[in-house]
Amino acid sequence: MKTLSARLLAFAAVLAALTLTAGEAAAQDAYDEGSVWNVTFVRTTEGHFDDYMENLKAGWRNVMDAAKADGTVLSYMILSHAPRSRNDWDLLLLVEYPNFAALDGLSDKMDAFAAQYIGATDDQRQEALISRGELRTIMGEAMAQELNFTN
């Protein structure tokens, strides 16, 4: 009798494990992991919105275009937003990467693009960063991954 009970208990355990595995598989089949987005929330300094956009056009855009041509970046965009308060952002800078693995070694790659388009020396890039800082405040940053529904 003990062997029958042990067999029934083992069968119940296997059945429960299979049920959990099937449930996990169904949940995983609902979506695929997509690209990864870096989102930067920016508040431009009052009266300097156009100056900041020109600054982005002169430097950031060129770096993003080079990174996109290289395959480091899939896409990028800027979204504007009417701030609801003095502490709210007015621009989103979005950069899309293929996946989280694409972030490995990203600083070195982006530094090389920045050297090419913003300034060859650390001092030149630092000066550009300081002048850009006078035009905006970074309100926050986030990384998020797209989830794409499957059939």
Overview of the molecule:
With 151 residues, the chain is α+β, with helices and mostly antiparallel strands. It has one domain: Alpha-Beta Plaits (2-Layer Sandwich). 49% of the residues lie in helices and 27% in strands. The chain has four helices and four strands, in the order H-E-H-E-E-H-H-E. The chain has helices spanning 2-29, 49-70, 106-117, 122-133; strands at residues 31-44, 75-80, 91-97, 136-149. A four-stranded antiparallel beta sheet has the order 2-3-1-4. Helix 2 (49-70) packs across helix 3. The protein is flat and about 50 Å long. Mean pLDDT is 84; it is low at 8-12.
Judging by the overall fold, what is the CATH architecture?
2-Layer Sandwich
- Shape label: flat
How widely separated are the two ends?
Answer: 48 Å
Q: What is the spatial order of strands in the main beta sheet?
A: 2-3-1-4
CATH class: Alpha Beta
The arrangement of helices and strands along the chain is HEHEEHHE
Give the strand tally: 4
How many domains, as an integer? Answer: 1
Helix content: 40-55%
What's a concise summary of this model?
The chain has 151 residues and is of the alpha+beta class. The chain is built from four helices and four strands; from the N terminus they run αβαββααβ.
Q: How are the secondary structure elements laid out?
A:
Elements: H1 2-29, E1 31-44, H2 49-70, E2 75-80, E3 91-97, H3 106-117, H4 122-133, E4 136-149
Antiparallel strand pairs: 1-3, 1-4, 2-3
Helix pairs in contact: 2-3
